Amino acid sequence: MNNNKTLVAPSLLSADFSQLGEEVRAVEKAGADWIHIDVMDGHFVPNLTIGPMIIKSLKPHTSLPFDVHLMIEDPDQYIPEFANAGADIITVHVEASRSPDRSVSLIKSLGKRAGISLNPSTGLETIENILAEVNMVLIMSVNPGFGGQSFIDSSLDRAVELKRMVNDLGLNIDIEIDGGIKPGNAARVRQAGANVLVAGSAIFGSEDYKKAISEIRG
Ligand code: DX5
Ligand code: ZN
To answer: Is residue 38 among the annotated active site residues?
Structure first.
């Protein structure tokens, strides 16, 4: 999927939850590439969000891929439900899975694209051995749990380093960055090697979704 075009994935966490279907249609019309859906369990992160039922109910509202970011402990028990609900890309956290390797295999066995995510303080070496198996790496540029936090600048160096690892291995995988991305810092994120940019508050908090998405895409 990584063909060097920058993809923009609005995070529904900052959308109006009283009208999620309408919000999904609005960002599709405004030029979004993927819909980023944050699933939180109140254990891995200190917040609770949405589950497979809501994802399923949103599916008929858009033809865009659903990029489902699981911030839940022991994700394997729920992966099949998210796959059935309409997730196209399923990302698990390396810190949350008992066996990231097994989680990735499970996601792929269900015919979905598999992502692995790292918190800001987790070393890239933790994913080195499964890099060849994943379709995407998601680098968190805030501590997961909430939208609207400030971008952690050291994430840029991490993206550069990850890109080098990916190139050294001759892999073609998506590099997604999530947290604190805005029109003002998106160029640096793209230059660091990310090709998928998640943005919640910068899109859903703006007056003009189309303008925000195109500025982030650059
Ligand atoms: C944070 C979530 C992010 C968040 C991004 O835990 O994974 O996807 O919604 O929101 P902004 O863009 O507002 O930082
Ligand atoms: Zn996210």
So the answer is: yes
Model pLDDT for residues 154-165, shown as the tens digit of each residue = 999 999 999 999
101-134 confidence digits (pLDDT tens): 999 999 999 999 999 999 999 999 999 999 999 9
Catalytic residue among 41, 168, 178, 208: 178
- Ligand 1, residues 11, 181, 196: which to mutate, most atoms within 8 A of Cβ? 11
DSSP string, 169-192: TT---EEEEESS--TTTHHHHHHT
Global pTM reads: 0.98
CA–CA separation, 69 and 72 (whole Å): 9
- The residues spanned by each domain of the chain are 7-217
Please tell me the total number of residues recorded for the chain in this structure.
218
CATH number at 7-217: 3.20.20.70
Q: Which has the closest alpha carbon to 20: 35, 9, 32?
A: 35
Rounded Cα gap, residues 56 and 137, in angstroms? 24
